[in-house]
Amino acid sequence: MKPKVYIASKVPNEVKAYLEEHCDCEMWQGEEAITGAQLAERLTEAEGLLVSGNAISNRLLDSAPKLRVVSNVSVGYNNNDLDAMRSRGIIGTHTPYVLDDTVADLTLALMLASARRVTELHNLVRSGGWQRGMGEGLFGVDVHHAKLGIIGMGRIGEAIVKRAKFGFDMDVAYYNRNRKPDAEERFGLRYLQMDELLAQSDFVVLMTPLTPETKRMIGAEQFRLMKPGAIFINVSRGDTVDEAALIEALQNGTIRAAGLDVYEMEPVSPENPLLKLDNVVTLPHIGSATAQTRSNMAMVAARNLVDALYGREPQYVIPELKA
Ligand SMILES: NC(=O)c1ccc[n+]([C@@H]2O[C@H](COP(=O)([O-])OP(=O)(O)OC[C@H]3O[C@@H](n4cnc5c(N)ncnc54)[C@H](O)[C@@H]3O)[C@@H](O)[C@H]2O)c1
Ligand SMILES: O=C(O)[C@H](O)CO
After folding, report:
1. Could you point out which of 33, 153, 190, 298 has its C-alpha 20 to 30 Å from the C-alpha of 54?
2. Which segments does the entry list as coiled coil (predicted)?
3. Both 250 and 310 in a single domain?
């Protein structure tokens, strides 16, 4: 008998076909993303779950007595209750590497858009505001040859470095909880303590996972340490930043601008002051969202799921859950 699996997000046809070959599948058909309550109702018989973004909480697992594997279609797994999974012997997997270049591309897009005021100027042209030549008031700042500081030098951090160093001749420094001598040598990177990195960088990019240690690691004190002309980019998770402090720093000119893909509350509320500031570029958590990369991620997640259900070691077990 094939193991029963619930597929909680839409997957491409070839991924569905692969899963159906190996598993007895049920799939979420709704247009909107599945809610936690809807997911809980569908897990009573499931041995495997393929999921994108939903919280895997102790409460959800209580309604899934037969669950053996949770396969996340994402690299981040901060929304998985790892203790609850561990205590039930549930295998958890994720999708590293396959999205690195796509997320790095988007990070550069946010850097360029914030520095060259792309969305602000786009809106100005669209609303008929381009009357004569453009005055200095609309000039941006250079990305090329600027100083970039990356907090969290992991897989995606390195992909950002390649673009910044070799495409834009940027001077790149990083802060990480442990030094990366290999990356320092390959890319000519400078390692700085966080306060020093904040004080020296024209662009600060946050690229750590969300953990108890990184929660709100950037707040009022860190924004004060940044240069007044600094541009802050967050593609990690919204909760790594104190959003109220970010809003204040942007409103009172403590920093120049921000480019954001992630927020404390997602979807972000239309009332959030960040959406009303000209010096903020906002995206809806789409770092990895190209058709090709999302399809590749779904296939990696499907293989992780099938391997785990059939007793083989999946390629990408969540590190904290490894035996
Ligand atoms: N916006 C998006 O769509 C999107 C897409 C992909 C990943 N992400 C986020 O980016 C994160 C990073 O992804 P990755 O694949 O590069 O992960 P990774 O594990 O390869 O790299 C993370 C790095 O952060 C460092 N780090 C961890 N805790 C730290 C701390 N307290 N202080 C300093 N450094 C610390 C780690 O040592 C590691 O080098 C993911 O966990 C996810 O939250 C967001
Ligand atoms: O962690 C990830 O892979 C992205 O944020 C998509 O959820």
Report:
1. 153
2. none
3. no
The ligand whose atoms approach the alpha carbon of 214 most closely is 1
**To test ligand 2's pocket by mutation, which of 52, 79, 99 has the most ligand atoms within 8 angstroms of CB?**
99
Q: Which amino acid is at 228?
A: P
ipTM over 0.90: yes
270 and 142 co-located in one domain: yes
Catalytic status, residue 237: yes
What residues make up the domain containing 215?
100-282
Output the residue whose Cα is nearest ligand 2's atom 3. Answer: 74
Whether 143 and 265 share a structural domain: yes
As for ligand 1, residues whose beta carbon falls within 6 Å of it are 75-76, 96, 99, 103, 152-157, 176-178, 207-211, 213-214, 235-237, 261-262, 285, 287-288
CA distance 323 to 89: 10
CA–CA separation, 298 vs 318, rounded Å?
16
Catalytic residue among 41, 266, 313, 320: 266
The one-digit pLDDT tens for each residue of the chain (323 residues) are 999 999 999 999 999 999 999 999 999 999 999 999 999 999 999 999 999 999 999 999 999 999 999 999 999 999 999 999 999 999 999 999 999 999 999 999 999 999 999 999 999 999 999 987 778 989 999 999 999 999 999 999 999 999 999 999 999 999 999 999 999 999 999 999 999 999 999 999 999 999 999 999 999 999 999 999 999 999 999 999 999 999 999 999 999 999 999 999 999 999 999 999 999 999 999 999 999 999 999 999 999 999 999 999 999 999 999 98
User: Is 320 labeled as catalytic in the residue annotation?
Assistant: no
Question: From the CB of 75, is ligand 2 less than 6 Å away?
Answer: yes
User: Which DSSP category does 268 fall into?
Assistant: P
Is residue 145 annotated as part of the catalytic site, yes or no? no
| 3-state SS, residue 258 | strand
